[in-house]
């Protein structure tokens, strides 16, 4: 028997809910914000808009469909199925947070705060949900196939990300490693480096952290578009010394290229899209390869 489609509503705890959890009451939260020249009314209104959107989205799911909800903090424990249609209700970053746990399921981004969010990934309004769900199952709506980046360690650990993967220390220290590209025979020789980390980003990430590094370096490398099968990478704050170099600090990766990093510190982590809580841990001597992933995010246009 064929399973009915399932709408999985992805959301995150609002700032207002976090304030109540920390301070206990609306009044205490209001006092805390007022001491920092902020008004709780604006925070509460954004909370109500988010919850109204969640209610409207849930009501738009067809009656014959199954329905689930998952909060951002629980994504790494949630099992997505091949028949799911994922509805992200919130901000652009929440789409990126969910993307790493998916394997080709269609994604609908619902903007809960139009005008405040850029709307790059959350492109629709709650009122559009019913139509979009029907079109997603019927295959009648165009989907952008957004490039993702992956890191694969020599012990088979694997990490996916939509915007970027950062390899670096767990805190604010320097890490040591040996860096090279598995691209072409003419590629530079491996270089020992000491830095605050390496960032590898996609065309979607080119609207955020990757673009900041690209601008800071005045890089001449063309930024990729979200669907381009190309990545850019930058070493952050490489330190020159008698044993470490700074000649291999940026570049581009095509689908056949891999950035290779061998750890020469006690500990290094790899995390994607800002989620350090769900990271790969790598220790001395381990090697990780980073490149274009075969998995893409299917984002409904």
């Amino acid at each position: 028997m064929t399973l009915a489609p399932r709408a999985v509503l992805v959301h995150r705890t609002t700032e207002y809910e976090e304030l109540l959890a920390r301070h206990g009451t609306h009044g205490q939260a209001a006092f805390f914000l007022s001491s920092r020249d902020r008004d709780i009314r604006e925070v509460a209104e954004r909370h109500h808009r988010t919850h109204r959107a969640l209610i409207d989205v849930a009501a738009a799911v067809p009656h014959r469909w199954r329905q689930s909800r998952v909060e951002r903090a629980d994504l790494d424990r949630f099992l997505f199925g091949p028949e799911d249609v994922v509805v992200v209700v919130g901000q652009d970053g929440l789409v990126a947070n969910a993307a790493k746990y998916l394997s080709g399921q269609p994604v609908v981004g619902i903007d809960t705060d139009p005008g405040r969010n850029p709307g790059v990934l959350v492109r629709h309004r709650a009122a559009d949900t019913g139509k979009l769900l029907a079109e997603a199952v019927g295959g009648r709506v165009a989907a952008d196939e957004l490039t993702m980046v992956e890191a694969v360690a020599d012990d088979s650990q694997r990490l996916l990300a939509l915007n970027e993967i950062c390899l670096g220390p767990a805190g604010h220290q320097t890490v040591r490693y040996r860096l090279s590209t598995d691209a072409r025979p003419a590629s530079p020789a491996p270089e020992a480096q000491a830095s605050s980390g390496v960032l590898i980003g996609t065309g979607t990430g080119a609207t955020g952290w990757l673009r900041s590094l690209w601008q800071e370096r005045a890089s001449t490398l063309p930024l990729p578009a979200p669907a381009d099968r190309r990545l850019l990478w930058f070493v952050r704050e490489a330190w020159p010394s008698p044993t470490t170099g700074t000649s291999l600090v940026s570049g581009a990766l095509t689908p056949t290229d891999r950035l290779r990093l061998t750890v020469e510190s006690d500990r290094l982590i790899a995390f994607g899209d800002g989620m350090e809580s769900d990271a790969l841990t790598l220790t001395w001597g381990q090697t990780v390869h980073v490149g274009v992933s075969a998995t893409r995010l299917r984002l409904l246009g």
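The mean pLDDT is 93. The chain has six helices and 16 strands.
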